[in-house]
Amino acid sequence: MAVPLPLNLAAPRTPSWAAPRRIAVVRALFALVWAVALAIAIGDKVPTTASDIPAGAALLLASYPLIDAIASLTGSTFADARVLRTNAAISALAAVAIGIAAFGSDAGSTLVAFGAWAAVSGAIQLAIAISRRRTEGRQLPLIVSGGLSTLAGISFLASSGDDKAHLATLAGYMAFGAVLFLLWAVRDQTPAKEAR
């Protein structure tokens, strides 16, 4: 959900502006597929924080940050390229950390790794979206997405010490973030005065 996408809101609107919107839509669709797959992989089993994670769910959780890493690298020619490349590196490292926790540790450790990534990437997205809103607008879905991702990450960190590891809530996190990115892509097609 979190992670700033390549949105060059400070630049004049040109036909090439469709590229960031396409990236947002593709990223959102992948996230929706990931969310459904994660819900299926976990099923009705709610592991304890000390239990192992099913292999399918572990693979999905570890690979999820790569969606944002690829989206950031794809948009590195747009504004905020340095931030996007940094974000891609953070997401790639998060994928490794989540993979190590998911495959080699337990559900609680996985929630810690995933929560830390969600909180950091959400804070980055929130800061960029607020900054861009001052100059161009059209950032409300991404402001909401960044803020909720930060809060969700903190929530995942807090719940990592509970008896039950409700990993299915991560699927909801992915799906809701996808909806917000789709909403941004739709709003971006409207005139600036109407899309604030």
Structural overview:
This protein has six helices and no strands. The longest helix has 29 residues, at 107-135. It is mainly alpha-helical and 196 residues long. Helices cover 70% and strands 0% of the residues.
Question: Which secondary structure elements does this structure contain, and how are they paired or packed?
Answer:
Blueprint: H1 18-42, H2 55-74, H3 81-104, H4 107-135, H5 140-159, H6 168-187
Helix pairs in contact: 1-2, 1-6, 2-3, 3-4, 4-5, 5-6
Give a short overview:
By secondary structure, the protein is an all-alpha fold.
Helix content: over 70%
Our count of domains comes out at: 1
Question: Quick one: overall form?
Answer: elongated
Instruction: List the secondary-structure elements in sequence, H or E.
Output: HHHHHH
How many strands appear in the DSSP assignment?
0
Evaluate the radius of gyration: 17 Å
Poorly predicted runs? 4-17, 191-196
- Helical stretch tally: 6
- Beta fraction: under 5%
Largest sheet: none
* Overall pLDDT level: 78
Secondary-structure-derived class: mainly alpha
Q: What is the rounded distance between the termini? A: 21 Å
What labels would you give this structure?
6 helices, mainly alpha, 196 residues, disordered C terminus, single chain
